[in-house]
Amino acid sequence: MISDLEQRIDLLVELGLWLQEDAFIPSEVLDQARYHNPWFTLSSVRQALVNIRDCYLDRTALTEWTKTIRVTSPEVKSIGLIMAGNIPLVGFHDFVSVFITGHRALIKLSERDRILMTYIFSKLTAHNRAFEDHYIFTERLEAYDAVIATGSDTTANTFKSYFAKVPHVIRGHRNGVAVLYNDTADEQLSLLGKDVFAYFGLGCRNVSKLYLEKGFELKRLFEAWVDWRDIIHHSKYKNNYDYNNALFLLNKEEYYTNDVVILRPSSSLHSRIGTLHYEYFSDLEQLAAMIMNKEAEIQCIVSDRALSETQVVSCGAAQSPTLNSYADGVDTLAFLSRL
After folding, report:
1. How far is CA 280 from CA 16, 205, 265, in A?
2. Order of all β-strands in the sheet with 135-137
């Protein structure tokens, strides 16, 4: 085991330096990852790696993040990690949290994101053999002291029951929402395109619902998102778009489209792939109250300005979470350091 916190930080920083090299992950590994999960395009994988490198593996960020944790000879615990696979390396933050607190991770990988994670771990192990004591890949969790699990709402309910007797953090499905105003600048709308289309909208931090000030013109969104028009050429995205377009047309529902994304009026936060829900507001206080009532369903709120006392993320930054941007608002570092 790597018992010294500074040594653990050093190893993570070293990984960040490796990720600056374009050839760190060979093309054959990227091809395998895409073969197992066609949503893992080269651009999606690169975006995930750049965010991990810049936001998770920076020495200053790691040092600040770990200032409050207990680091003096902690008792090593075995932490079960059930990882999702909706976007590349989405479970990496959970592992970093376990590793930095000096514990051992028992990792159940998603079949959809097995290739990239195992490759990165093999490189870290080759660099420092003591690293292999910090993790085990397993198909079945056994002999664990605590669990962090991510899945759908259905699996989350199952996890809560199954892991009820041990300390746990269980996450279900959430969505990102955006609040836009009539005077929101076109440049901000353009940046918002990244929050909507990155990873094809599959991430819990992707914006799936728009709250628009009454009078907002929908055509502004289509004009601002022209740079994302090539997303329709991805076969799986196009198949989803075509299906939803046909479904809404058959049901004679109100919707608008630019042949790339469908804008559909709905109160629901969750939208289908290739579809974005929207709802108009006229009273900011009422909007803030409504969003607070749906807090358990919302991963992040994107806007170009503050909304009451609600924390917001800048347009274009939803998929660039920092180390303390905890999923579902649960501080995993504090959870692990208290074990």
Report:
1. 42, 21, 9
2. 135-137, 104-108, 78-82, 146-150, 168-171
**Under a CB-based contact definition with an 8 Å cutoff, are residues 95 and 135 in contact?**
yes
Nearest-10 Cα torsion for 190, 313, 232, 117: 140
Burial of 178 (0-12, 13-18, 19+ CB in 10 A): buried
In a domain, 318, yes or no: no
- The rounded distance, in Å, linking the Cα atoms of 97 and 105 is 10
**Cβ proximity of 155 and 277 under 8 Å:** no
Residues 13, 62 contacting (CB under 8 angstroms): yes
Does one domain contain both 35 and 163? yes
In this prediction, the residues of the chain whose per-residue pLDDT falls under 70 are: 70-74
Cα–Cα distance measured from residue 283 to residue 115, given in angstroms and rounded to the nearest whole number: 48
Residues 183 and 76 in one domain: no
pLDDT reported for residue 338: 87
Degrees to nearest 5, angle at CA 162 with 101 and 81: 30
Closest-CA residue to 8 (of 107, 80, 74): 74
pLDDT at 138: 97
Residue 96: what pLDDT? 97
For 199-255, give the secondary structure using H, E and C: HHHCCCCCEEEEEEECCCCCHHHHHHCHHHHHHHHCHHHHHHHHHHHHHHHHCCCCC
Pairing relation of β-strands 275-281 and 207-213? parallel
Q: What is the DSSP string of 101-167?
A: TT-EEEEE--GGG-HHHHHHHHHHHHH-GGGGGGEEE-SS--S-SEEEEE--HHHHHHHHHHTTTS-
CA within 13 Å, CB half, 44: 27
In a domain, 169, yes or no: yes
Residue 325 included in any domain: no
pLDDT for position 61: 96
Q: Same domain, yes or no, for 22 and 114?
A: yes
Q: Rounded distance, CA 82 to CA 89, Å?
A: 13
Q: Is residue 322 part of a domain?
A: no
Rounded distance between C-alpha atoms, residue 101 and residue 68, angstroms: 11
